[in-house]
Amino acid sequence: MRILVSNDDGISAPGLWALAGQLMQAGEVVVAAPDREQSATGTAVTLRQPLRVQKATPLIEGVKAFSVEGTPCDSVILALEKLIEEPVDLVVSGINQGLNLGDDMLISGTVGAAIQGYMRGLPAIAVSIPAGYNDWRDAARLAKLLAEEIKAKKLPQDIFLNVNLPELPVSEIKGIRITQPAHKTHIDSVDEGYDGRRKYYWLVRKKLNNNSAEDTDMWALEHGFISITALQTTLFRKPIAGIDEGCCKRLFQNFKQA
Amino acid sequence: MRILVSNDDGISAPGLWALAGQLMQAGEVVVAAPDREQSATGTAVTLRQPLRVQKATPLIEGVKAFSVEGTPCDSVILALEKLIEEPVDLVVSGINQGLNLGDDMLISGTVGAAIQGYMRGLPAIAVSIPAGYNDWRDAARLAKLLAEEIKAKKLPQDIFLNVNLPELPVSEIKGIRITQPAHKTHIDSVDEGYDGRRKYYWLVRKKLNNNSAEDTDMWALEHGFISITALQTTLFRKPIAGIDEGCCKRLFQNFKQA
Amino acid sequence: MRILVSNDDGISAPGLWALAGQLMQAGEVVVAAPDREQSATGTAVTLRQPLRVQKATPLIEGVKAFSVEGTPCDSVILALEKLIEEPVDLVVSGINQGLNLGDDMLISGTVGAAIQGYMRGLPAIAVSIPAGYNDWRDAARLAKLLAEEIKAKKLPQDIFLNVNLPELPVSEIKGIRITQPAHKTHIDSVDEGYDGRRKYYWLVRKKLNNNSAEDTDMWALEHGFISITALQTTLFRKPIAGIDEGCCKRLFQNFKQA
Amino acid sequence: MRILVSNDDGISAPGLWALAGQLMQAGEVVVAAPDREQSATGTAVTLRQPLRVQKATPLIEGVKAFSVEGTPCDSVILALEKLIEEPVDLVVSGINQGLNLGDDMLISGTVGAAIQGYMRGLPAIAVSIPAGYNDWRDAARLAKLLAEEIKAKKLPQDIFLNVNLPELPVSEIKGIRITQPAHKTHIDSVDEGYDGRRKYYWLVRKKLNNNSAEDTDMWALEHGFISITALQTTLFRKPIAGIDEGCCKRLFQNFKQA
Q1: With an 8 Å Cβ cutoff, is D203 touching chain C?
Q2: What is the ipTM of this complex?
């Protein structure tokens, strides 16, 4: 099993190498990650500029590593389309320092990297732990278990999993829950500053203490569980009342009249 | 009705101003858009750096315009959270030069801008026409019709619509279809180059001539229809076989043993 | 006379257009400037990435304008090597908001733009006024006078002038002085901040109240004069004691022994 | 002796570590360099955005290393003003892959880094070898010799040296020459390309085969010598005919009349 490992905290992030280290027990690991932190770059892909890639010195021996001057998505696309010649069987992204829950996921570079694997038909896993929590070992170990289950076909092959772990020692974690994303997990606020010459703004995300429903990722994390959410790569919303054939006819009639 | 207009082609793009011009007939228009092209920045939000904003000279009189050194998402977040003091009723993004269909949508900055409006509880519309098609008028007019219908509550308020128009004069457009996103619309390939000193890579997206099903956005566009797709802001995939309580128990048992 | 006008405050800066407006009285004006602020980019040239250029809407009718996604140096190089087909006779950069005095000049994008003109054999002028001073008219008028003198060959053709004006009405300006750069005009200090996730540093330049000698640009500005400093495009320092043939022989002998 | 080592090829460049390795024999070495290649960024300083710094894994044990998301100048300023608490005695920049000769020097990030050391009163050395030449050892050894001479006060303390070595084994190098910068060493040309959507330009520097005078850096390199050029940090040009008191009076009179 060949596993591509990426992240959005950059190729020097300890979480990336903790992950790579564990996954080596499940298969051959190749790392392709941004050369510097790319948090919140979400699904961004670099199309207007060329990309530079360097062979990086791996922090773990035996791992081939590429450092990409680009986003997490760029790293995965380049790795799968160009840098790795042999077929890849799994993409794992993380371990992100900072939970990726609810709506938040959409702007996560960690999830973005996994999206690009899944879009290419590969199973994909994004793994995150709380910001400030410096113990990646359990998260890396869980990722390895998931990789092994995929390899052994105990898990379906067509999966894109968003995995979040609480800041707890294993003995205190209550279990694993299959969840759906909570709706609103953060609120954006905008700080203003002055650099001595001009005003600037700075986006700041503040965590919401919301009362998420019991089936959500947020609830799971707040109650000591590991959360696994199955994702897809479409924003498609099932047919909704009022957006139907009737509205099409009405709109088109008006549109033609102009 | 107050309408925020943004895009990913940048504040000088003619498509933006064609849109703003039409929407002025439906309400008060405020423009907040990236200062330079930000195509394919998708859902990216700038959290690690401050953002600079300038009052921009509007290309249409009477429109307040903000030029943001950031992504489309940054522009909409800043506008809604800080720059516009009065309540906004609708976010319209476009008119993008380049269709945003199928999976592609996820990396679209045009769609990304709309996401940030919809996440804040506002109706949101992303509008695109084919790359190279320089007639924005019909697309802008359709956006105005949609805005008027939202204002008149003929359309549901809780909507996030991805609208794509074909490169055809109105008289040849066959109608409007409510669609779902086609699966694969593009294939990435990677060009290699040399800048006189070092090698570089360049991501290139090539359009697929796929045989999309008749209910897809891609089919609609290829057959002369306007496509409207209803979106949501979650990648959540409905429960799938094998990702269930059983797998949770199994995984957790193994996880605890380490 | 064809005059290329650039700056480092970006193509929307009012100082640029005040300058262009006045210079139109001396010749044909073409504007090529960065699309966004590029202060302190000094001599930086973009070699590792391609450059994007847009025809910009000029704020003054009759002026051809190019907006460059790059540095001031990039803008001038592109304009002179590619964008302007006819020969250019003069490069004027500014009007910068922020004096460019002493050592400071080296990091100034305003001076950087002029360097690229002068390196190509053209007379070049950089013009600056104090930060926060919003009256560009007199500075623009002085630039026009200089352009006219160059055109009329009242001034030598082989010149690269760094011009700084004080924040004073014309009636209170005491005169114009030919100066040399003061040694130390600013001190860098480093602020520390925290973005909610990680520490950051921010370089801040603080003006020194130094006792500059009477022949310096700094002294001139502090005493109500306009300063004109003649520059060249080399950092070469005349032969200095101890860096001589003797040291060459000594070093080379040691070098060969290894 | 405490030596700050920086470069513009980025903290992973082998030339940087070859240099650091040799300089360890002359004193304590601290590395502060850009996290990615910053060629041709010249004197650029980042004032509009905060800077991120990471402790980097040194490629040579015992060396403290900082990776800076910024320019070479940023790296040196940050290191000297903030990151290094003890006094620094010397700044060495390189070993650059690509000669920095003549006018070219002004856009060199390698020289830019050294400028910021010299401006703070420290002896500063920039060292470069030809592009494509992968043997940094001799250049590093020469840098060590220079450092030792500075330490032993065999060389003056107030020096800023630009050192270039030819692509030759030591036995074939003819000697060391004190030179002045050749005038024109490169010519810029502009390539045009198309990214599938829009046109782009790419600046390309082409080496000139000029007939430089015998006292220049270019001549020295072309004839098998090592070149050492003494630099200063001002572009000031000695008084020139026509830029004098007479021109000041004339201009000021016209200026006042408006």
Answers
A1: yes
A2: 0.95
